Amino acid sequence: MTDIRLAALNEYESVSTFIDQNWKKDHIYTRSRKLFDWTFLDNPAWEELHYSISIAVHRENIVGMLGTIPFRLNIYGAIYDACWLVNWLVKPEERKGRVGLDLLKLFSKDYRYDTISFGINDAVSRLYTALRWQHMPPIERVVWFNPEKILEVKHLLIETNANVSHDAIMQYLRSNVSEVRQFNSRVLDPIQTLESLDWDKNGWGKWKNNTIGCCRDSKYLTWRYLMHPIYTYQLRMIPDGENIGLIVWRVENTSKKNIRSELESFYPIARIVEFLPASDVNALHLVSDFIAHSFACGVVAADFYCHNRGVIDMLQKFGFSNSNANTNISLSNYANPVAIGKIIRSAININKGHQVDANSADWYWTRSDSDQDRPN
Fold first, then answer.
1. What span, in angstroms and rounded, lies between the C-alpha atoms of 51 and 69?
2. Where are the strands (E) in 152-242, listed by range?
């Protein structure tokens, strides 16, 4: 008999060992208890005194697991309970039965969560097709290259595009490097603003009625960015009349492998993870703060993954480039070491009572959703 239940707080070692042995050796969740607890326990959308992980236990041994990251799903201002799925695995000898589906059922049926799988491969994609989930189109990505660091950008692109000629890379840069006009802007203190609920009313309050995705209220932003146990995020809020715009990013020092396969320091890059402007002018103020900070930190390049056509179009007007537009040259999306990953696809299962279209242009989704923005 296999028991399906939530993982207890004293079972971290057992769960992390299962991940290490069956999912990936030295996975970040096995190396950082703080990140594990932050993800599966400290989350404000999870109120149980257990980890938000279902485990399958047979004869006192874990034979399967499904990690989830609960969140509040916003659909045009209406809020529903939902979760992202991570680390869904059943040992081969247990896959003939319903163990895998029972791990999912604990959250989709017992908790009645809408379930989202963000960042799926081909094999898992076929599984979600069989389960009749909706498939979302690949998330779009825009990139920015520092015009003051062209030589460094070239080296970065050469490192991760080994089969592309130097001439082709330089032609790519000539077509995709542009200046972004900057303003001097008055920045609100982020922590004070979040605590005062100005953001919930005058920032997120202006976006929620027109978008679908994770609820980006002050409680979520505080947990996701200000309380993160590993990364230091830069959070800027800038007023636009009574409204407030937001941008969040982080700077990461990359590394590459030398001829001895040892990691050595490379160039700093930036990842924008939130961009919710209040207007076109406000958007330029927000981007200006990001650019100024990037120059000060010596950032070579930056990216932003986002499911929202309006936001992507706005950044392209400011000089960002669509990374997938008619080119085989890519900026690395892994940092340590720098490497090119696959496109990010997702599948969703939304309860029939509030069903939404996976292809809707109103989704607002970024790479900070689920556990896509974590150390590799």
1. 10
2. 212-214, 233-240
Neighbour tally for 120: CB within 10 Å: 20
Name the region of 48 (left: φ>0; alpha: ψ -120 to 50; beta: rest). beta
Radius of gyration of the chain (CA): 21
Angle between helices 12-22 and 33-40 (to 10 degrees): 100
Provide the token pair at 257: 């492998």
Q: How do 78-90 and 61-75 pair as beta strands? A: antiparallel
CB 88 within 8 A of CB 100: yes
**Average pLDDT along the chain, 376 residues, taken 10 residues at a time:** 95 97 95 98 97 96 97 97 96 87 96 95 87 94 95 95 91 85 69 82 95 97 97 95 96 93 94 97 93 95 95 93 78 92 91 89 95 88
- CA distances for 141 relative to 16, 109, 202, 230, 330, angstroms: 32, 34, 27, 24, 10
Q: Whole-prediction pTM value?
A: 0.95
Domains and CATH numbers, the chain: 2-136 (3.40.630.30), 140-342 (3.40.630.30)
* CA 207 and chain centroid, separation: 19
